[in-house]
From TrEMBL:
Biased composition (Polar residues): 692-703
Segments of this protein annotated with the region Disordered: 681-703
Single GO term (MF): oxidoreductase activity
PROSITE patterns tied to this protein: MULTICOPPER_OXIDASE1, MULTICOPPER_OXIDASE2
Name of protein: Multicopper oxidase 5
Plastocyanin-like domain: residues covered: 118-226, 242-387, 528-663
Chain segments annotated as coiled-coil in the UniProt record: none
Length: 703
């Protein structure tokens, strides 16, 4: 699309577009939007036009289209679009009134557009447009994403984090409450808008409270017309998305802080919001539709997977009699070198793989189970991979073919009939990087040479940080005293835990740091870190404060993340870095005799045991081995305030996180002038004067 500015004198100017469309600029005035949008008046905002008066060469003006029209084949050289979505957040219910008689066995009613079946049981949820997961977003690289989020949640603020998008041009769109924005108040609308620079499979979810665990999550696909792996698949279908989430029988707030007579647990696993609750006592499953993936024999399909867990379960996925060729992790393209039979992922990770439909046509189980810490819960669920054949194309009465397939007639395998592991990717006990081992780990993947950042790989880091993740048993006499903290989790009985990093439990600031940096008036008093703690904290005492690490813009940063647990168990933390991607340069487990002096041990590991790959892949979420460590490296090239945290919902809420400040506030991009602001309101206590605080003069003069 070619633009030139018409010389029309003062006042609103006109842009002449080669398609013959007139658009008014620069004021937000009523204009006629040209075909193919509509011929009705519409208000176009300067932000969407992305055109500035002082621009030497006007950038491309994007056509504004409804978001679902952006799900298209992406062609090199095609002009980008502005994709406008409208979302409503609200309290809702699974198997509720919108499902009519679904719970009574009328299967046709289960497919009402606003019916959320989940695991087949009734439950309160937080829905986006009455969907769980929320609406998918499919765009092309360099499209502009605009999402109007209307918050109708009763009594709750909210935000949406765009997991995988670095927001270099729009850091105030990262969606972290009290770090990059104010929570969106009830009955208000907040407009997120940013450019889809990072291609691949990305992830959105609420970053407020436990809304993600109750249903606020979804997929963002940014297709790259120049994808280096496109020769390895025939189809990249929008319906071939796999979003895995854990699910509880109750709203998860029941478990935070929790009750003494029961422990939090995973009751079901949802695949694209569908599953069937299994009652192990009765041996019965709920009758609810499953997710169906249809394929054609002989074709190769790109599948996109998101691990959207909130609790402690890694997810193990297998596709009966089929293997998976890994081609991407966390949105980053990797060389197609590893074909696996079992894929293990943890909360926040994304993987793309190619499935070749090379088995005898029929129906096959897509099998996902919670493993590791959740082995004892014996929870798994299923979807269906169905080959299109005349036999599978016969619908049941009142149902479509796909709806019929969602109720398979074949019996499900029992939990005690596991599939063979075969080649396992990301095995939960894999040491990784041990010479000559047979495990395949995420960082064993290899990026293409074109993505190799030699300067980052070979650099001597400017700063190195050691971050120990702690789950601490709370001192109940302190926890329930006047000095007690507001965040903790009850595991069972009187066993309560608090999350921390370097013995600091994160307390969010009282204002969004990026938006209102002028309120940072005393850094020593407002922030803390491992070398600067409040006076009441000793080296071995748990601190509650706003944990901040500060680095210079463009420094090369190395962070060694390690698990401080003293006992080996099937449990490990997923770590997520906002605003950046990183490479993993080392990973391993501590020797059994290293219990308390982990940092000394890590400092003495002088030789970085890099992955076998010449070009390490880029990640933004990485698991830390139990009683082990991960060494990551990135370039701090995105000034702002960025959250660093465990991606388990409960651990972040209990304080396992911190803020990374990159650069000084004057190096950070400034938000729009009318961007929402918030903070505490604590005026002087009225001692008898008037409401305006005039120390009573007006009131006395009126007597």
């Amino acid at each position: 699309m070619i633009l030139r500015r018409a010389e029309v004198g003062p006042g609103p100017q006109l842009l002449l577009i080669s398609l013959g469309v007139l658009v008014c600029f620069p004021a937000a005035v009523d204009c006629f939007v040209g075909l193919p949008l509509s011929t009705k008046p519409a208000r176009l905002w300067p932000q969407l036009l992305l055109l500035a008066d002082n621009a030497t060469v006007p950038p491309i003006v994007r056509r504004v289209v409804p978001g679902d029209q952006c799900d298209r084949h992406c062609v090199p050289g095609d002009p980008p679009l502005t994709c406008h979505f409208r979302w409503k957040l609200e309290n809702y219910a699974t198997m509720g009134s919108a499902c009519w008689n679904c719970r009574l066995g009328n299967r046709a009613h289960c497919f009402h557009p606003q019916c959320i079946t989940a695991n087949g049981l009734e439950r309160g949820v937080f829905a986006i447009n009455r969907r769980v997961p929320g609406p998918p977003i499919h765009v092309c690289k360099h499209d502009s994403i605009v999402v109007d989020v209307e918050n109708q949640l009763e009594g709750l603020g909210s935000t949406i984090h765009w997991h995988g998008f670095h927001q270099k041009a729009t850091p105030w769109m990262d969606g972290v409450p009290m770090v990059t924005q104010c929570p969106i108040p009830q009955d208000t609308t907040f407009r997120y808008q940013f450019t889809a620079v990072e291609a691949g499979t990305q992830f959105y979810h609420s970053h407020a409270g436990f809304q993600k665990a109750n249903g606020h999550y979804g997929m963002v696909v940014v297709r790259d017309p120049s994808d280096l792996n496109q020769a390895h698949y025939d189809y990249d279908l929008s319906e071939h998305r796999i979003i895995i989430a854990d699910w509880t029988l109750d709203m998860v707030e029941k478990w935070v802080p929790g009750i003494q007579t029961d422990s939090m647990r995973v009751d079901s696993i949802l695949i694209n919001g569908r599953g069937r609750y299994f009652n192990e006592t009765t041996g019965t499953r709920a009758d609810a539709p499953l997710t169906v993936y249809q394929v054609e024999y002989g074709k190769r399909y790109r599948f996109r997977l998101i691990s959207s867990g909130s609790q402690y379960c890694p997810f193990q996925m297998q596709i009966q009699n089929h293997s998976m060729l890994i081609i991407s992790t966390d949105g980053g393209t990797v060389q197609p070198q590893h074909t696996v039979d079992t894929l293990v992922s943890i909360s926040g990770e994304r993987y793309d793989f190619v499935l070749t439909a090379n088995q005898p046509p029929g129906n096959y189980w897509v099998r996902v189970r919670g493993i590791g810490f959740c082995d004892q819960m014996r929870v798994e669920d299923f979807a269906i991979l169905s080959y299109r054949t005349p036999e599978t194309a016969i619908p049941a009465a009142g149902l479509t073919v796909e709806q019929t397939l969602a109720y398979p007639t074949e019996p499900m395998p029992t939990y005690d009939e596991p599939y063979p592991d075969g080649i396992v990717f990301n095995h939960q006990t894999a040491p990784c990087y041990t010479p000559n081992d047979t495990y395949i780990c995420a960082a064993d993947l290899e990026a293409y040479e074109v993505f190799r950042d030699t300067g980052l790989i070979d650099a001597v880091p400017d700063r190195t940080f050691f971050l120990g993740f702690h789950v601490i048993e709370a001192n109940n006499s302190l926890l329930f005293s006047d000095r007690g903290t507001s965040h903790y989790a009850t595991v069972r009985e009187g066993f309560n835990t608090i999350g921390a990093t370097n013995m600091i439990s994160f307390v969010p600031p009282s204002f969004p740091l990026l938006i209102q940096p002028e309120l940072i008036v005393d850094e020593n008093a407002q922030f803390c870190n491992v070398s600067h703690r409040p006076a009441y904290c000793t080296d071995d005492h748990l601190c509650f404060c706003t944990h901040r690490m500060k680095v210079k813009h463009n420094d090369v940063i190395e962070i060694v993340l390690y698990d401080t647990a003293e006992v080996r168990q099937k449990f490990y933390h997923p770590f997520h870095l906002h605003g950046h991607r990183f490479i993993v340069t080392d990973s391993g487990s501590f020797p059994s005799d290293i219990l308390t002096d982990q940092i000394a041990y890590l400092r003495n590991l002088r030789t970085v045991r890099r992955p076998n790959a010449h070009c390490p892949p880029y990640k933004d979420t990485q698991s830390i081995p139990n009683r082990g460590y991960v060494r990551i490296r990135f370039r701090a090239d995105n000034p702002g305030f960025w959250l660093v945290h465990c991606h388990f919902e409960w651990h972040l809420a209990d304080g396992m996180g911190l803020v990374l400040q990159i650069g000084e506030p004057d190096e950070m991009l400034k938000p729009p002038a009318n961007f929402p602001r918030c903070g505490s309101f604590e005026p002087p206590v009225d001692t008898g004067g008037d409401a305006q605080g005039t120390n009573g003069t007006v009131a006395r003069n009126a007597l």
